[in-house]
Design goal:
Pfam family, one (chains A, B, C): UxaC
GO molecular function (chains A, B, C): glucuronate isomerase activity
Helix content of chain A: 40-55%
CATH topology of the largest domain in chain A: TIM Barrel
Shape of chain A: globular
EC number (chains A, B, C): 5.3.1.12
Radius of gyration of chain A: 23 Å
Catalytic activity (chains A, B, C): D-glucuronate = D-fructuronate; aldehydo-D-galacturonate = keto-D-tagaturonate
Strand content of chain A: 5-15%
CATH architecture of the largest domain in chain A: Alpha-Beta Barrel
Mean pLDDT of chain A: 97
Oligomer: homotrimer
Family (chains A, B, C): Belongs to the metallo-dependent hydrolases superfamily. Uronate isomerase family.
Chain lengths: 471, 471, 471
Amino acid sequence: MSAPLILHPDRLFPADLTTRSIARRLYAEVASLPIISPHGHTDPSWFSSDALFSDPANLLIVPDHYVFRMLHSQGVPLEALGIARRDGGAVERDPRTIWRLFAKQYHLFRGTPSAMWLNWVFAELFGLEERLSPETADLYYDRIDAALATDAFRPRALMDRLNIEVLTTTENPLDPLEAHQTIRASGWQGRVLTAYRPDPVVDPEFEGFLANLDKLGAITGKDARSWQGYLDAHRDRRAFFKAMGATSTDHGHPTARTADLPFAESESLFARVQSPSVTAADAELFRAQMLTEMARMSTEDGLVMQLHPGSFRNHSRNTLANFGRDKGADIPTQTGYVEGLKPLLDRFGDAPGFTLILFTLDETAYSRELAPLAGFYPCLRLGPAWWFHDSPEGMMRFREQTTETAGFYNMVGFNDDTRAFLSIPARHDVARRIDCSFLARLVAEHRLDEDEAAELAYDLTYRLVKEAYRL
Amino acid sequence: MSAPLILHPDRLFPADLTTRSIARRLYAEVASLPIISPHGHTDPSWFSSDALFSDPANLLIVPDHYVFRMLHSQGVPLEALGIARRDGGAVERDPRTIWRLFAKQYHLFRGTPSAMWLNWVFAELFGLEERLSPETADLYYDRIDAALATDAFRPRALMDRLNIEVLTTTENPLDPLEAHQTIRASGWQGRVLTAYRPDPVVDPEFEGFLANLDKLGAITGKDARSWQGYLDAHRDRRAFFKAMGATSTDHGHPTARTADLPFAESESLFARVQSPSVTAADAELFRAQMLTEMARMSTEDGLVMQLHPGSFRNHSRNTLANFGRDKGADIPTQTGYVEGLKPLLDRFGDAPGFTLILFTLDETAYSRELAPLAGFYPCLRLGPAWWFHDSPEGMMRFREQTTETAGFYNMVGFNDDTRAFLSIPARHDVARRIDCSFLARLVAEHRLDEDEAAELAYDLTYRLVKEAYRL
Amino acid sequence: MSAPLILHPDRLFPADLTTRSIARRLYAEVASLPIISPHGHTDPSWFSSDALFSDPANLLIVPDHYVFRMLHSQGVPLEALGIARRDGGAVERDPRTIWRLFAKQYHLFRGTPSAMWLNWVFAELFGLEERLSPETADLYYDRIDAALATDAFRPRALMDRLNIEVLTTTENPLDPLEAHQTIRASGWQGRVLTAYRPDPVVDPEFEGFLANLDKLGAITGKDARSWQGYLDAHRDRRAFFKAMGATSTDHGHPTARTADLPFAESESLFARVQSPSVTAADAELFRAQMLTEMARMSTEDGLVMQLHPGSFRNHSRNTLANFGRDKGADIPTQTGYVEGLKPLLDRFGDAPGFTLILFTLDETAYSRELAPLAGFYPCLRLGPAWWFHDSPEGMMRFREQTTETAGFYNMVGFNDDTRAFLSIPARHDVARRIDCSFLARLVAEHRLDEDEAAELAYDLTYRLVKEAYRL
């Protein structure tokens, strides 16, 4: 057997030859469309400073929880992968040692999207053709390390090379957006935009909530401890984010619950969530009310609203204690939308110009709740298969379970939602291939004509994303 | 490219040629079997009066919430589609204007069952071959409008042409069944039957419940405000419905909860749900008890019982206020059957001759609850994939997730559940094609022999439906 | 048409020829690997006594609730199938009569895994080639009956013929394990092991719980009515089971709830669950605490822990009253793992050497909860698709919904979980064919290389099972 080809040109297309040839034709038309990335977590300072990345391990392993959680699940201590301990305890510092450990365990990623994304990066960006393994670990390390030292691998150059037309980051209201200001002032033509993610000042259970309110007040000059002042402060920061290029807001809540309380009740609720005796029920109700407030502001300022509920954050006590938040221990929970969204939808469900994009980590909601809701309410659009479901099977289930009720036109195309910058084109490529495979099946089964499928492939890849996010 | 063929003879068959040729053979044997439609919502007065339908828009768009909800979801006001406002406010009245708007938005239905059903009607009944589009809108309108003016499109003639052997409508106990009486007295041979749908006199939260009880008393001469009189009134109306041809009852409840209370407790519960201080919990308990009472009566009179829980009716406050009930805003909710059905099943689960057909809008119940329950209890049968799941992908998931545990013989074939009369054969045709495709895969994978699959295709299309519904 | 071949060599492989030929190649490499059966319910006395089985009906129908529940669901009384009544009432005793009734209804199993397992037994073990039907019922009966009278069909001979390397049974702590002791003393080389299943002394709602505690005390000489003595008694019995070959424990709980109470609280909880006023909430909390205690003991003695929550046992009141437990009326319920497992995982989630294998009957947990949990926690592994999901479609959904997040290496291969001894190879064969079909699709879609798929087929069939269960 010859050396494996780590990136086959027909990858992800259905095996049936009739369907595969339709998929190939559809894909050929969208493969090189520019990438619209309206939702993600790259670091804007990369683009303001345009500095070189340090080394393969610190670029591809240490910051990527998809990668290190899998190794952890098989007994590799996070310390061995260079993840910093909160107590400053010893962790592996040598990037080559970390890389070799990763290479030794690379078989764990068989059949996962991580392997597909990484192989794309290895092959397309670094010209690697052999499979990563203990034997090729050093070859890989050296090749990648050398490339990272070149100007071609500076962030701004990569934006061009990766064919990214728009890249959206996520910042909270307390962020001064210095990097974004620097980018805008620099004359560089790359479109790196921010999005308004207010969780730290909206969630009473967020670490440092009260201090965050005070900072919000200080930044805006409003009395952010009073309900009216707090709302004004949001309006103020939203306007600033919008001026810095934002077209959207982003809300990560434990549930999809919304509320629509009278002003006086909201006011006293806001007082309660600032008191030491705040209850979990009040915190939940406050988050619920704030979703409706954010919707109201969106009807005023036109920012598109995104809601992704249903993650039990930092599930592992030990990992949180030793390594902090966002270390791969966020676990999805059952999530209901029908009762939860009603107050917001009753208020703004058909408000002109308002768009609310819904995400889920609970696939049972696709056909039961999300598609029927999006197939009725003018404001609703469905975000793509996301996070654990941003994978070939996951994306296919999303299409199969939502299209028949919501139609294609209540969708917003693909989000990569990643901080793994180099993998962005890989992720979009998987989405394009899966969409073309799904469409090809509909054509092969005479449920669509091929010209319709071609138009839909373009829409799902490019047009609907720009339209939904107003980019 | 030549003009698209809007109704390909191989539509919905799997692309793999081996499987497709098996599916074609299976389908050929069932394609022209008569339609048994044991559950639906056509208007019996069509068949008693045998009047012409008015125009394309009022036949195909205005009454079909599958159609207008999709346009609404993309921002088309219901007024523009001719949906009447409760306040009598202005809405579009010109059917051709409505039709043109629909034609302009027809791409929204790509990939949805609505497109497949409509294309069947366009091609098979009106001989249209080009795709509906803004360019062909008037051609379509004129062709359909002209046909509707002919005797061939009167309801009774269509019953023959559409090959419908039995068509069941749904009426509530207060309905005098005049249309059904007229039909029976007319000498016409068409079988249009009623079904007993008592929700308006069983659900204390139904609009006008108390007045409905009084009407029930007046019609039956029973004291429908006393528990015993109320039960007697049901028995009386069931007997009348049965005399008018009914073989089944139909129950649409928010949940699948049942109860089996002692007589005295039911009696006092019935008093409470008639009092101004009725609670939501009492209303739910009353509905639960009534399911068991209906089951008891079914063991007496042999009417087959159908239960379809789990729809949050009229979810949109504005749509309900402005346009009324049943305007496409019914959204499925999570539905549990295991705890809920136990009281009824403990009482009548193996009662001789009793049949309870279960439906769901929550696909998670297919493999987890419904197939195991139907695979054990003698009284239980599974209704088909329904409403949002009456679609190629939805029906396929139903077969894949129920067959292995419940077997094929605990199924009741297909229901169209529609008020869109012309689309009935289209819907049954989709079901037959999907069933044959599923069976063909089992044959291709050597999980069934082809002679077994052929027998099953017949059973699922015809025999099991007639048997289950006693038609 | 020629007589059907009841066991086609390509059965269960995908119809697409490219994929099928890959599946055939992968399967050829694992088809004759020895069977590792680490979780099941065969009777160890078969192997200690090595007696002949009595007759076809009492071997293949009467003890198999997969078989008799399906007939019951279609109205066949359990009495007619020879299931003993608790009141000693008359039931059919003639095995040939039972067999003929079964043969007459054999079409009910079309499309179910039972048919596939039974056909394997008929063809591979008894050389039958025609389909079972009323016409062939006696031929079948005579052929099987005659074979069962031969030494080749004694349990120990079958262990060799069926190629079973390890077979694990399940016993509760009160079981003296006499059969296992006899087997070990006999010099026979077959590996028949026990597993520690403590539900009768762990679940306060188990029939006879208090008497069971007393028996546990008597067997171990500990004060099993005191918390410390009770824990010591468990340690004692676990050590005994381990000495008799056990490598695992097995826990069937209504939910996945765990708790991690301070010693004094557990102590008083244990007192409460022994009192007449025990509440359902206390019983649930006690089971929850005991899962964490069992985990603690596993970290001490190295027994692998298995948890399978989510079955509503003995759902039918009449069947329980007339025929007793375990008569096919266990129905799955919705099961959540994220909140429930947190106390146990916070305590032992990364304890060195600890393994907890999770099962589910609620497929919605696959992608939402189980794969993300197993893809993070070092102790967790996923048990295979199980019970109602131990079927071609069920196993395929398991792979499709778990692999992308958890990877292949957080799996433990296949369990047959059966008391139907002869069907064990049939069940493993289905699993091997489905795994090879899934892997073949990944190869055909260029998501894996074929050499990787071959390694994975071996791992899923043999290596991961032995490793996970320490066999």
